[in-house]
Amino acid sequence: MFEQILFAIMALVIVVTSIGVVAVRNPVRSALNLVANFFALAVLYVLLYAQFVAAVQIIVYAGAIMVLFLFTIMLLNLGSPSELAERSDIKRPITWGLALLFVIVLAGGVFIRLGEAKPAGDDIGTVQMVGKHLFTDWVYPFELTSVLLLIAIVGAIVMAKRRL
Amino acid sequence: MDALLSNAWVVIPLRILIVVGFVLTAVPALVWIERRALAMMQVRKGPNRVGPAGLLQPVADGIKLFFKEDVVPEKVDRFIYFLAPAGFLIPVLCAPAVIPWGPNDRLTPIADINIGILFLLAMTSLTVYGIVLAGWSSNNKYSLLGGLRASAQTISYELAMGLSIISVVLFSGSLSMRDMVLNQQGSLGLLDWHVFRLFPLGLIATGIFLIAMLAETNRAPFDLPEAETELIAGYHTEYSSMKFAMFFMGEYASMVTISAVMVTLFFGGWLSPLPFAPFTWIPGPLWFLIKLGVFIYLFVWVRATLPRLRYDMLMKLGWLRLLPTALVNLFLVAAIIWWQK
Q1: What is the per-residue pLDDT across B6-17, written as a single tens digit (0 to 9) for each?
Q2: Do B113 and A51 touch (CB under 8 A)?
Q3: Considering the entire predicted model, what is its pTM?
Q4: ipTM attached to this prediction
Q5: What secondary structure, in 3-state letters, does chain B show?
Q6: CATH code of domain A1-82
Q7: Where are the domains of chain A?
């Protein structure tokens, strides 16, 4: 009972803040909506017994990536909303069309239900389980991802500092 | 009594009351210690008029802050301006929830979760929002610079801090704070603590954590976000009255929290330094408080001793000295633990 009430509240928060991210004009407030969204998502992970995923969600997304987002927004001083207003009118119908398509696909996925999902065990999100799967079944994708990140870092440095 | 303490609706509010109550009452005590100790180190008297030895000075300061006029500048972003002090204080008060203060798990920690240290890292990494948003919403260039500096500094030093914590995780094989303390229990007393584990690798990890913890709490010599010679008061320039007091309390409470983390991770938590008779008579929570006091004093001592770093020196220290050292240290710790198995 308690879990259902908590889920309902958090789901509501997620929906409201998700709309807020795109609807709010001020970029800093938009970023803050995203932070609140990540929090509510972390609570949902805890409700699914995925404590490790919840903690990592907050450390990585809310604690590091969004701080960098805010840092960039402030550094570029995107504070005045009027400058951000869209001017071209061609983009708008395309945006709405794509959004509608996305909603249809999502709703279709929910209603048609492509096969039943297997119920997850209680230890699905624990450190032990995540570590075991990451370093046995998924070790190649895991290492490839780290190489990808390394390439991105090297690329960023090359772009930023032409004369090193 | 036992039946009452096993009821979750009684014991959890009680635990929250104990932890949050302790952290908040430690703040005025800490202010008094800091002002008196700084005065002692600079050969002056310090506050000594209000109460015996100036003990009631923090109370007087609190009353003063409470009755001050609350000035809100005209062009601030009001919603975020009001939100920022709470956004700073709340994660600071949430963080100590996973720290065990004694061998008895009835009263502390509030929740002994299996990802304890990750929860702590998550909470400490959130404190930067309060600072950044305060700096941005104040609509003041000094505040903004303070906020930007704080965010850059926190992200830079979080990496080194995280890497030094990972070596402790490797030592104890668990993310739970309670298991980490129990892993330091042994017949050798303080030689079994993580600080002396795989000498000198544990010591290096402790040193990295120490430097990173000063930077994370924005204390001297890393107090660049509020460097008064360049930035007036940094991110809280435009805050007055109780909103300023919330930043002030948050800063001191985070000193208490991070010192408690230091004690738990590296210095044996509630364990006594020598495992025989006269020392084991002293109860665990008291040992914890003694160790905590040592680190609090260290904060003040460092502030009185070291000059503030320049901004480029701060970044160079974080990225070019601490991070590589922490990486090599972590690699050695992992290699030796693997080899010993």
Answers
A1: 777 788 888 888
A2: yes
A3: 0.85
A4: 0.79
A5: CHHHHCCHHHHHHHHHHHHHHHHHHHHHHHHHHHHHHHHHHCCCCCCCCCCHHHCCHHHHHHHHHHHCCCCCCCCCCHHHHHHHHHHHHHHHHHHHHHCCCCCCCCCCCCCCCCCHHHHHHHHHHHHHHHHHHHHHHCCCHHHHHHHHHHHHHHHHHHHHHHHHHHHHHHHHCCCCHHHHHHCCCCCCHHHHCHHHCCCCHHHHHHHHHHHHHHHHCCCCCCCHHHCHHHHCCHHHCCCCHHHHHHHHHHHHHHHHHHHHHHHHHHCCCCCCCCCCHHHHCCCHHHHHHHHHHHHHHHHHHHHHHCCCCCHHHHHHHHHHHHHHHHHHHHHHHHHHHHHHC
A6: 1.20.120.1200
A7: 1-82, 126-164
